[in-house]
Amino acid sequence: LPPGVIMSAVTVRTRKFLTNRLLNRNQMVVDVIHPDRPNVSKADLAKELAKKFDVNDEKTIFCFGFKTAFGGHKSTGFCLIYDTLEDALTTEPKYRLVRAGLKEATTGSRKQRRETKNRKLKVRGVKKAKIGVS
Questions:
Q1: Among 33, 49, 118, 126, which is 20 to 30 Å from 88 by CA?
Q2: Three-state SS annotation for 5-17
Q3: Tens digits of per-residue pLDDT, 102-129?
Q4: Cα separations (Å) of 45 from 2, 42, 48, 55, 100?
């Protein structure tokens, strides 16, 4: 939060709370009421939810899909709180892990990766390793 802005002006409410034991997480719809701000960052929301649900590690909280209502003042999105970081790493899709900074994004264009793969298919043995390096 920038200095001078108080989080108390923002109200965070949860609905449709569900404890998902199969995926070791709690999932919920989050309503954020923010009358004096255009919107609230996901990092700030994660801090608030960590306080509300007594979560030790904020890396296990994933907030996404937030839409600001027409006219502002209210945003609605989805939140997942995993029991452990390992559960999150095995369950969450790669793009969300990349957004959270828990995984490295793939580099190079799709075409580049396809071309290297196809070049590797044409050779056998140890030569495959040499193709990706150059």
A1: 33
A2: CCHHHCEEEEEEE
A3: 999 888 899 999 999 999 999 999 998 8
A4: 14, 5, 5, 13, 14
Q: What is the dihedral of CA 21, 54, 8, 20, to 10 degrees?
A: 0
Main-chain dihedrals φ then ψ at residue 118, nearest 5 degrees: -70, -35
User: Rounded distance, CA 133 to CA 97, Å?
Assistant: 27
Q: Cβ of 25: how many Cβ atoms within 10 Å?
A: 22
CA-based nearest residue to 29, from 84, 69, 80: 80
Q: How do residues 54-109 score in pLDDT, each as one tens digit?
A: 999 999 999 999 999 999 899 999 999 999 999 999 999 999 999 999 999 888 89
- Count Cβ atoms below 10 Å from residue 101 Cβ, excluding itself: 8
Average pLDDT, the chain: 90
